[in-house]
Amino acid sequence: MRISKSDGRQTLALQRDALTAAGVEPTRLYEDMASGRQDDRPGLMACLKSLQPGNTLVIMTTATLKMAMAALADPNNNATEVARRLGLTRTTLYTYLNGDGSVKAVGQRLLEAEQGNGPLKTRQTA
User: Fold this and answer.
1) Contact 65, 107 (CB under 8 A)
2) 81 in any annotated domain
3) Could you tell me if 7 and 29 lie in one domain?
4) Same structural domain, 42 and 68
5) Which of 66, 46, 68 is nearest to 57 (CA)?
């Protein structure tokens, strides 16, 4: 989980609640409070080190996915700027969405998991 502001204006609570509601054990949650532009992310590094074959890594919140969908649906926005504003890379953005903001299969699975209609899986390790 990551938020970009540690000044109290953002909280990890919604992400934590959604992940634990989806069955993720609290001991498997990793936190960073840093800008998307910073490379030093101890929570992400600890998470990546702990991954085992067959584990699932969730890499986007549904709130961020929905914001990206709305932004890309506006023809005046471009993917580079949308990704920058949301603290994502274009690669991550295009993993979940098409250039017009429509959802790819992996993004749809994430949205369904939020609604309780499917498993919360986005990327598995080999």
Assistant:
1) yes
2) yes
3) yes
4) no
5) 46
DSSP of the chain: -EES--SSSS-SHHHHHHHHHTT--GGG---EES-TT----HHHHHHHHH--TT-B-----HHHHHHHHHHHHSTT--HHHHHHHHT--HHHHHHHB-TTSPBPHHHHHHHHHHTTSS---S-B--
Tens of pLDDT, residues 2-27? 666 666 666 777 777 767 766 778 88
pTM: predicted TM-score of the whole model, two decimal places: 0.49
| In the block, residue with structure tokens 């993004």 | 107
Which pair of tokens denotes residue 42?
A: 């101890």
Within this chain, do residues 36 and 10 fall inside the same structural domain, yes or no?
A: yes
